[in-house]
Amino acid sequence: MCCKGCEAVAKAIIDAGMGDYYKFRTENAPTGRELVPDFLQQISIYDNETVQGSFVRRDTTAAADEREADLILEGITCAACIWLNERHLAALPGVLEVAINYTTHRARVKWDNSQIRLSEILAAVSRIGYLAHPYDPNRQQQLLEQERRRHIRRLGLAGVLGMQVMMIAVALYLGAFSGIEEHFRQFFHWVSLGLTLPVMLYSAQPFFRTAWRDVRRLQAGMDVPVSIGILVAFAGSVYATFTGHGEVYYDSVCMFVFFLLTGRYFELVARKRAAEASETLVRSVPAMATRLGSNNEETLVAVAELIVGDRVRVRPGETVPADGLILEGQSSMDESLLTGESLPVKRGRHERVVGGAINIESPLLIRIEQVGQDTVLSSILRLLDRAQTEKPRITQLADRTAAWFVFAVLLLAGSVAAYWWQVDPAHWLPITVSVLVVTCPCALSLATPTAVTAATGKLIVSGLLATRGHALETLARATHIVFDKTGTLTHGTLNLVASEVSKGHDVDACLAIAAALETGSEHPIARAIRHKAGTNGLPAVEIRNTPGAGLKGQVNGQRYWLGTPLFVEQQSGQKYDSRALQTLRASGNTVIALGNGQAVLALFAFGDTLRDDAAEAVAALKAAGKQVVLLSGDHLAVAQHVAGKIGIDEVYGDLLPGEKLAHVRHLQKQGAVVAMVGDGINDAPVLAAAQVSIAMGGGTQLAAASADMLLLSDRLTGLVEGLNMAKRMLWVIRQNLFWALTYNLLALPAAAAGYIAPWMAALGMSASSLIVVGNALRLLRNKRN
Amino acid sequence: MEVLYLLIPVAMLLVAVIVAVFFWAVRSGQFDDLEGPAHRIIMDDDKPKKDE
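^ inputs. structure came back:
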C-alpha cells in the first residue's frame, strides 16, 4: 500500500464486499496464487481508480484509455531477468510499452486500460516467478533492506562453512602426499559433504532459482553455466564420497558460492549507491503535512491526502509537501535538492514554492497548487527515471552479446568435457567446471549500465539532469554547441543595468525607497528592483497604483512617485534629465524614474543581462575543442555585441525559428553532431532537431520540457561539467568492455586447456565483475584537478 | 588419532553455534549499516561533562 489514504480506500472496498469482484478477475493466476496468495489478493486493489491516482499517470490526449505506471520488480538478479520480463510483458495484449531499470528494479509500463487491467499485468509478472508492486519509495527501501539481509546471511553461511571445508581439504591434500588412512579419508569426505550441504541448499539458492527459470523458458542467462558448474562439481564429489573412488571438490563448490555471492553483494551495494541521487529526491518528500481547516485549526495529514486548494503550514526546518503558492509569510528556501543551487532562495507572499524545498527561516502559509504526480519534484524524478531506463545503444549491444555468449560457453563446455573424457578421464570434471565458471559474462553485461547510472547520478548533484539514455553519450561526441541568446546566455529577465541619480542622492537609498514602494507588486520591474535592493524593511504606506504608468506612496513620511519618466514628471511637477534618459534608453533598455515633490531623484534602466558564467562556460567549451555557435532571433548587432562579450566567433542574428532549424540541419548535413542549448520553450523545434538538446530548466517549465538534458541550476558551467562527465563515462565504458572481453578471451582457452583450477576460476570471475563495478563507481568521485 | 572422531563433531557443533549467532546478529539488525559505526566511533560524544 503506498499511503494511508490508499490503505483506507482499499479497506473500504474490501469491507463493502467488493473484494469478491476483484478475486473473480484474478482467477487466471493459479501458479502465482499458490506461491503468494496474499499478494495476489492484494493486487486487484490496484485496479481501483482512486488507488491508482497516486501512482498511475493517464494520457488524456491519446484516443484509447492509456495509462502509465512505475512498478518495482522483486527477484531481479541479472540483466537477463530484465530482458525476460520486458519480453513477457510486451507480449501481453494491451500492454503498449515496457522499460525496466536494472539499477532501481523499476519497470515503467504503459497499457491500454480497455484491454488489460493493472492487476492482470502484476499477475502476469508473478506467473514467471517475479513479484511486481506499484512503485512507492518507502516500500522500495524495505525491499532493498530485506534483500540485503538475506544476502548477508547467505554470504556468512557460505563463508563460515566454506572455511571448515577448506580446513579439512588441507588435511586431505596433505594426506594425498604423505599417506592417509582410508577410514580417515572417508570420514573427511562425509564431514565435508555435511558441511557443503547447507551451502548448496541455502547460500546457492539464488543462482539455481534464476538458472531454473531461464532453462524453463529456454533462455540462456548468466546463472545457467554457473549453476551447472556448481551442480556438476557437487554431484561428482557426492559420487566419489559414496563409492570411495575419485576426487572431491567440496572446497571448490563452497568457494564458488562464496565468491559469487561476494560479487553479487558488492553489485547490490553499488546499485544502491549509484541510484542514491534519485532516492534522495524521493525521500525528500515528507510523509506528513500540517493542514489548516476552515477555522485555522491544525491537523496532521498524510501528504497523499492533500488536494489542490488546501492550506498548509510549513514551519522552519520542515519540507514543503507539494508545489504551492505562499499566502502568508516570507522566508528563504533551500532548493538545492531540486536545482543544485546551494544558496538559499528568498520567497515571499504570492511566490511559488516547490515540493521538496526546505523552509529555513520563518513559518509560511501555503496554498497547494499541485499534488502528487503533478509536482515539480515528481516530474524531475520521472525524467531521471526515463534516462536511466532507456538503454544507450552500446548497452543493447552488450546485452545481446551476453545472451549469445552464454550459448557459446555451454556448447564449448560440452565439447571440452567430451574431449577430456577421451584424453584424460580423471580430469574432465574440474576442467569443465573451470570453463563454466571462468566465462560467466557478468562483467560484460554490467559494464555499461553501472557507468551510465553512476554518471547521471553524479551529474544531478551538480544540477544537470539527463532525461534520455543517450544524452551523455551524444554530448561527449558533439562537435558543435549551439546557443540561443535570450534566456540562455542571458538571464531572460529584467535586471537593473544602469542608473542616473541626481546630485546629492545615493543610488542605494533611492533603490531602497523604490523597493519599498514596489513591495506588493509582481511586475517584472518591481521584481528586478527588489532583487537589486534586497530586503531592507523600509515601510511604505498609502500606495496607489496607476496601471501602465506607475505608483505613488509614502516612505518615511514623504511622498514619492515611481514609474515612467513622463508619469513622474506629470505627478511631481519636476523635470527629469532628458539627455541622461536618452543615453539610458539607447541600448534598448526600459527606463523608470523616481521622484518626490522636490526633484526627480533617479532614473533606473532595466534590461536583460548576461549570465555571470557565460564567458567562462564558452571559453571552457572552446578549450574542449567544441565549435561554439550563437543563433539568435534578435538583431544581428545585439547578437554580435553579446557574442563579442563572451567570446563566440560564429554569430547569426535576425533568425526566425524556422531559419534556426534550417541552420542546425545545414550543420548536421556537413557531419556535425549538434548540441543545442536553449531555454526550452520558444526553441522547441530546434531543440528537437539537434542530436542532443539541453534546456535551461527554471522551476515550473521543467515538466513541459522535452529536452534530452535539463540545466536545473541555470548555471552554464554545469554544461562543462556535464561534458567532462560524459567524456569520463564513455572512457569508463570502453575500459569496462575492453576489460570484460579481454578477460574472457584470455581465461577461456586457459581453462579449456586445463591450466585453471576451479577455485581460481571462481576468483577470477568475481574479480572481473568487481573491477567493472568499481571502475564505474570511480565516476561518483570528484575529479582531482 | 582416533580422537579426531570426537574433535571434528565438536568442531561442527561449534560451527553450528557460530552460524546460529551470525543469523541472530543479522536478524537483530547488526549488519544493517556497515559504514556508519566506523565513523561513529571516531565522534566522541562521551567526553566527561565540564563543571558548570
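The longest helix of chain A spans residues 137-178. Chain A has 30 helices and 27 strands.
thumbs up if we can close this ticket
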